[in-house]
Amino acid sequence: MSAAGDDVTARRRQTPSAAEAAGPGGRAAVGPELREAVGPEAREAVGPEARKARGPEGKEGVDPEARLAGGRGALEVVDPGVLTLVQDLGRPGWAHVGVGRSGAADAPALRLANRLVANDEGAAGLELLMGGLRLRARGPLTIACAGAPAPVRVGGVAVGMHAPVEVPDGAEVRVGAPSSGLRTYVAVRGGIDVPPVLGSRASDRLGGIGPAALAAGGVLPVGDPPSAWPPVDVAPVRPWPERPWRLPVVAGPHADWFEGGLDALCGADGYRVTPSSDRVALRLDGPRVVRVRARAAAELPSAGLVPGAVQVPPDGLPVVFGVDHPVTGGYPVLAVVRASALGVLAQVRPGERVRFVRG
After folding, report:
1. How far, in Å, CA of 99 to CA of 87, rounded?
2. Less Cβ around it within 10 Å: N or C end of the chain?
3. Which of 278, 267, 287 is nearest to 348 (CA)?
């Protein structure tokens, strides 16, 4: 838990260092177009484009009590745990106004949890950092948990992960700290129905867009249940990966700026993940990557970034960008983590080691 506490403490002071890691011009939100799109609080989208992306249901917000009166349930937050966020699969298509995609850090885990309760894979669920979450059901609900393996109890009875679980009205759901990994996901049948911003319910921690982190006493409305029913009783999952974590990478656009190119990153010792890591980026400590002489003082114009980009700032210590990465950055990109391994970035704890491998 101390590592997670360090992670959260670092998150509170993360924005300046994230901008610094992104390089000259790197930022999460720029220009008047963004201010017009999301407004001063970044909690409600305005303007024709935003309304179209968001849909009419997001215009006035959602009243949890009205949901209950209409026969739909809700989740009352008893204890939010270390950090719990509402996440879906993100908001693509807004990079031109400085808004990143964001979304679930371990998207495959959220997809699995949603499938288990027959939701659309992109339905909004909850992303828990190191557990500690307590919820009370308002109305009978069906949930499923996936991601980092954690103890789950419903009404005081232990239940399994990777399976749909019925939650009676008034029962309390508790999710403890995971035994491995960092982030556990909770899906509820019907999805978390908070108002969308720019077409998504994802919480972007760097841009400050989307719903705020859960707080005690809050109530999360649940959407209409899908017509289909859960197709399985339990989903088989792969064994949790052995350590050190392996990150397959391909050469980035500036691999030739560094001595040894991609091999300079793929050494046998690997790197240790520092406590300043979060949804924006994994910050690493280990062998420093050195530029070739011809590029020692070279500068780059700001360019677009993608999740998994391995950027090397002047100190030579790689930074691996996650789902809340800045839209642009100005330091050279040595490598890019394969899309199939991006979920790993969400589960590496501070202090653990990662190894980059050609893949």
Report:
1. 16
2. N
3. 278
Six token digits for residue 335:
């490598």
> Quick one: pLDDT at residue 21?
44
Q: How far apart (Å, rounded) are the C-alpha atoms in residues 276 and 319?
A: 11
At 305, phi and psi to the nearest 5?
Answer: -115, 160
β-strand pairing of 309-311 with 333-337: antiparallel
pLDDT category at 68 given cuts 50, 70, 90 is: low
Residues 40, 190 contacting (CB under 8 angstroms): no
The answer to whether the pTM exceeds 0.90 is: no
Structure tokens at 22: 């992104």
Distances 307 to 14, 73, 206, 330 between C-alpha atoms, Å: 17, 35, 14, 15
Local confidence band at 268 (pLDDT 50, 70, 90 cut-offs): confident
Residues in the chain: 359
Q: Are 162 and 234 in contact (CB under 8 A)?
A: yes
By the 8 A CB rule, do 112 and 146 touch?
A: yes
CA 167 to chain centre: 26
What are the C-alpha distances in Å from 271 to residues 46, 265, 291, 324? 43, 9, 18, 21
